[in-house]
Specification:
- The protein is α/β, with parallel strands linked by helices.
- The protein has 2 domains: 199 residues, Formyl transferase, N-terminal domain (Rossmann fold); 92 residues, Methionyl-tRNA Fmet Formyltransferase, Chain A, domain 2 (Roll).
- It is 27% helix and 26% strand.
- It contains 9 helices and 15 strands.
- The strands form 3 sheets. The protein has a 7-stranded mixed beta sheet with strand order 5-2-1-6-7-8-9.
- Strand 3 and strand 4 form a beta hairpin.
């Protein structure tokens, strides 16, 4: 392919901005951007623009914000851009009519080494499950979510105390670079796609569904490593949840002590000045940053200055 294909980019949060910026820096032919409609938020519930919209406006990129992806008006406007390929990064599920019509199809960037961790929260679940490695995958969209043929992958090590927020930031840049590499490969015709069902048995696939409140609750009857992984996999958002002194507490940063607890699992232990920890089955979860009910997030030593045990 001599001419660079025309690309429509679809995305919403800051994670997607890195990929869109990488396309522009690589001199790719981005002919339009699709993002979510403005939504009320913040103080006064004023309309807020998505990070992708703000970037698109700043770079004079044509923009669409469809309320309904199945509307004839959206398809007509999208078709007018005449894309050769569409790129999706952190966007909504597309109707088949939308993802199938470009000649080169629709390319997605996903935050895991597919077919592992298909779903809405691959960054969180990889850490919560104690994985030592994850990565980014580019693949072609098809009917079932995150099941399309794999184009390229790049691996990322998960260090022992890495949080979901830290992995997100690393993956954002790795994914942006992999996207450009994938498009270059498609233009050159030197990428051979691989069907996911050729890589692993369906029964061995780990999934990454949307995180709900019940997924954030900590069970201190588990071992301390599992609980530490749970906390860092939910930090900084939405935060792991427990109850101390009858109050809801969110944990954001923890470390592990392998000292065998004398107290029952779930017991809150502190000297009232320098440390706070919670007993687990085989050790203590040492608390670094917490958010006590009714208070802001703070370092545990700052919290203890005002803490009085009931």
């Amino acid at each position: 392919m001599d001419k660079k294909p025309s690309i429509v980019f679809m995305g919403t949060p800051a994670f997607a901005v890195a990929s869109l910026n990488a396309l522009l820096e690589a001199k790719m032919n981005v002919v339009g951007v699709v993002t979510a409609p403005d939504k009320p938020g913040g103080r006064g519930m004023q309309l807020q623009q998505s990070a992708v919209k703000q970037f698109a406006i700043a770079h004079d990129l044509p923009l669409l914000q469809p309320e309904k992806l199945k509307s004839p008006e959206f398809f007509e406007a999208l078709s007018a851009w005449e894309p050769d390929i569409q790129v999706v990064v952190a966007f909504r599920m597309l109707p088949e009519k939308i993802w199938s019509f470009p000649p080169m199809g629709t390319l997605n960037v996903h935050g895991s080494l597919l077919p592992q961790y298909r779903g809405a929260a691959p960054i969180n679940w990889a850490i919560m499950n104690g994985e030592a490695e994850t990565g980014v995958t580019t693949f072609q969209l098809q009917h079932a979510i995150d099941t399309g043929d794999i184009l390229l992958q790049d691996r990322i090590a998960i260090t022992k105390n890495m949080t979901a927020g830290e992995l997100h930031d690393t993956m954002m840049m790795v994914g942006a670079n992999l996207l450009v590499k994938t498009l270059d490969g498609l233009i050159q015709g030197n990428i051979k796609s691989v069907a996911q069902n050729n890589l692993i048995e369906e029964a061995d696939i780990k999934h990454a569904p949307k995180i709900f409140t019940k997924d954030c609750e900590i069970d201190f009857n588990n071992n301390v490593q599992t609980i530490h992984d749970h906390v860092r996999g939910l930090a900084p958002f939405p935060g792991a949840i427990t109850k101390v002194d009858g109050k809801i507490v969110k944990l954001y940063s923890t470390t592990i002590s392998k000292e065998i607890p004398k107290e029952a699992a779930g017991s809150f232990v502190t000297d009232g000045k320098t440390f706070a920890k919670i007993a687990c089955k085989d050790g203590y979860l040492m608390l670094n940053d917490i958010q006590w009910e009714g208070k802001k997030r703070m370092a545990v030593v700052d919290f203890l200055r005002g803490y009085r045990k009931p």
